[in-house]
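S1.2 Input.
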Amino acid sequence: MPSQNEIDRRFHNIRAAMEREHLDALIICGNQYAGFEGATFYISGFEIVHRYVYVVLPLAGEPTLVFPREARWIGDKAKPWIKDQVWPEIPGHWIRERAQERGWKRLGVYGMSFIMAVRDYRELATFELVPFDFQFDMARAVKSEEELAEVRDAMDIILDGFWALVAAYEPGKTEAEIMAPAVERFFARGAGPRMMNILLSGSHGESEAFFKVPGNRVVQPDDLLLYSLEITGIGGYWVEFSRPLIRGTLSPRTQAMADAYPHALEAARKLMRAGELASSVHRAVADSFAEYGFSLGHLSGHSIGATMIEHPAIGAKSDIELKENMIFSLHPQVVDKDGKVCLYTQDTYRIGKNEGECLADVPWKFYSGSETREAAVSM
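S1.3 Output.
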């Protein structure tokens, strides 16, 4: 659990953002969908096990955790530091009555587009509802020392799982069997359900350009496997990591993509510094790959924390000034001109004073299954 100073810091920063937007109160939404539970966990300490929850945070006064009645016995209600808790039949109806009782007019909503239940939105539609995702995320973008400790713990867990995956990698196994030892490590060390482990894969030394769930496909020596590992630790902070695996031979097209990666990643890392614009980092990656005749599949990356995807993005239009101790996932996906074949990587970075810090001590290369963590660290 965070210290009281850390909790106070979070409330202070969020309320300062609310005050700038002239909000009377803020509704912070979270649900069970992986990556969408983080905002309520961040502000309340409640861990969603099933369904959804809201935190109602007035500009002044005590916040309230609002659960749907059907979730009364789901989740540990003693764990959160917000002790005012209610279980109405329809949460939106309860929030509407509270807002009317206190004369609230302008309500911010974190998660209105993707998280808030329709039945609750209908109850609140008569108020002035202000989308507040960007403002909320920017208020929590710079991580405290307590938060950075949780991020580093999560990174140690994800690397532990990665090396278990490398050790399990063997042609003749299924994609799911290779992944399984990593997931076992993740769960044993506290990730719980907060993980999203997916895969890009293909044959003949290439990977198809769409993500899927690792399944029962039997892996061949020339299959290229790009496991995308995304988890939290007990503290709830997400990290992301990926390295390519292949036992056989890369295709010439994949090799050409691989040749472009080292320069692009290093160019991005050097720009992940205080005072730089997020768009500059994206441009460095995109321009590097363009020199080799390739384009990016999507954004270069995004801020990451207690929610899997936070603002700001690392994208062409993201002219947000980076600040020290922001945390970003950098995950450039290179695609061929037809958009069918790709290469992919993920790393988690801390924004530094002069350059970025990659939180993973794992060289970018193609792994064959013979490598060990000890040997990689000494490289």
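S1.4 Remarks. The mean pLDDT is 95.
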